[in-house]
Amino acid sequence: MSAPYKTLLCVDAETRWSSKPTDWSEAPFTLSKLTTEEYIRSPLFKAFGFCIHEVGTTKPVQWYRHEELPRILGTWDWSTTALLAHNAQFDVSILSMLYGVNPCFIFDTLSMARALRGTEGGNSLMKLAEDYGLPPKGRALNSTDGLWDLPRHVEKELAEYCAHDVALCEAIFGHLMLRVDPVTRESTGAYPTKELRLIDMTVRMYTQPQLVLDVEMLQSALVEENAKLANALAKAGVEESTLASNAKFAEVLQGMGVPTPVKVSKTTGKPARALAKSDVLFQALLNGDNEDVALLCEARLRVKSTLERTRAQRFIDIAGRGALPVPLSYYGASVTARWAAAKGSNINLQNMKRGSFLRKAITARDGEAICVGDLAQIEPRVLAWLSDYDVMLDIFRAGGDPYATFGSQMFSIPGMTKESHPLLRQSAKSALLGCGFQLGWASFAAQLLTGFLGAPPVCYTKAAARQLGVTTQDVQDFMNSKRHMDAMAEIPHTCDEMALLIHCLAAKAIVEKYRNAASPVVDFWKLLGDLLESSLVGGREYTHKGMLHFRKGEIELASGMTIRYPDLQVSKDERGYAQYTYSDGKKRVKIYPGKICNNVTQASARVIMSDGMLRIQKRFPVVGTVHDEALWLSPEAEAEASYKWGLSQMVVVPKWMPGIPLNADGGFHKRYGMAKN
């Protein structure tokens, strides 16, 4: 990497904290109780000091006390000075939010370790030092817990402890930059430059927040949400505490003559109350004919769905302290490399409802607009390219409605449209988005009943089954299969057995029609099954289409990063079939061809997405990403041109994926939630 800086400083902060109430804090003042933003922006916060070292020099690590920080931080030219820290989101936020430091580049060893080692096995400074054979992290003899100011002897020891952390961070950084294997101590190649730029971009979304929150809108919405809750409770005639408790709610249902819905817990395998919004049996009560029970269930949802009310209040609180830091974890999904909400942030921007007041309350600063670009059907497009599914690629190249066009091919109905065949078109969409990763008919049927990929719940009827081509012979064959009937019996449902049978037959027909139409995808699964055995377990090196490199325990992506399957093992299941599992650092995880297909598709889609974001970043600040969306800021007067240019950068065809038909849409607006309207 050609250094985008002249000077690199490794930094580590030591700050005021208390694990219990004190004379200066009514409650514990610690990151285990507060978010990073809440902690740093608190009037109680104080940086006792920073240790700073100029990387690559023989200069000593220097401790700067709180009083010295404004002076010393003013001596560096930040346009040419970069920062390195372990958990840079914390240390750099202090320097940025409190001291106005804007480094030209940010390195973060925590983000790098998460990408190379996974998110579950531990990436603390202590664990990394241990794994790389470095001196132990150690701990200070005198605790600073609860201290408002530091006695000199405590500060001296703390400075030495902090200096050791800086030395460890630098040493670990050297190992991570060369991607040194902790076991063999051999380098597997330099950390990819683009990925370092993504770390810098992601950390800046938090440390240099540029989005603002509309407090007036949030307060009005909060009043409205509370009024809806009060109205629902009044109609149901019960207390909020009763609806919040599973046991008490079940008692109320029983008092109304309604048996408590029960399911088999996926975690314990034992019977459990089916009272969650996603439970089919609860949905049946919510949408049933008994109006009193339906009102009760609606009120329970209002009580249990505290997410929007809680987030609204958190947004209001944040707005009182400043702009909105966007809390994202680079490589939050350790297998597919996608971003995820940062742990402990308490404001997951990844799962806000489209059109919600929360999205609308996120705004650009005066004179700016938020541009949003969304890669359209990116995973089906990537999968079609990886599997040489040329018919599907041609459908995407033709534009129009890909789901209707695919439905025409899948169901042999020329000219299908959303208007002419709404059921079949929706079935084709569900298949295209869900069945490409070896989804079985039983899982598909169960997910349809609760709402597949966010769509409304669907239970296929006899008429729908006939339209999908289900025959009397199909019914007989299904009923004669003990395996099919056993699988059906495990699906939670509220309909009678015959209705469930018809629904399962319809779901099975959709899956089979998808696999018949998408035979190249099925062939790709077969290839991945062979590679699972011969390459990922056996060690044979194989390259797929010049951009996926399979070898023992891992798949290298076009980005130079790898999908890792540590400690991959094979055993026999109860039917004598090979079963593969790997360790994620905490537990054994099953892996099979469809899962590998999902991993390489999502990971490749993420590379396309992140490359586009980096191109946009060269001209406009990228301030967030939500799934396949990128968010960037533009001068308000140039918003339309910026938006169109940004979309063009998102759909640049990668050299390593020639011929893939990419598409993106979106919009721009002062408010994030209205940009795509």
Name some characteristics of this structure.
677 residues, alpha+beta, Nucleotidyltransferase, domain 5, Taq DNA Polymerase, Chain T, domain 4, Alpha-Beta Plaits, 4 domains, five-stranded mixed beta sheet, four-stranded antiparallel beta sheet, 26 helices, 45% helix, globular
Task: Give a short synopsis of this structure.
This protein is of the alpha+beta class. The protein is built from 26 helices and 22 strands.
Description:
With 677 residues, the protein is an alpha+beta fold. It folds into four domains: 7-209, Ribonuclease H-like superfamily/Ribonuclease H (Nucleotidyltransferase, domain 5, 2-Layer Sandwich); 213-322, Taq DNA Polymerase, Chain T, domain 4; 363-376 and 601-674, Alpha-Beta Plaits (2-Layer Sandwich); 390-517, no CATH class. The chain contains 26 helices and 22 strands. The strands form seven sheets. A five-stranded mixed β-sheet has the order 3-2-1-4-5, with helices on both faces. The protein has a four-stranded antiparallel β-sheet with strand order 20-21-12-22. The model has no long low-confidence stretch (mean pLDDT 90).
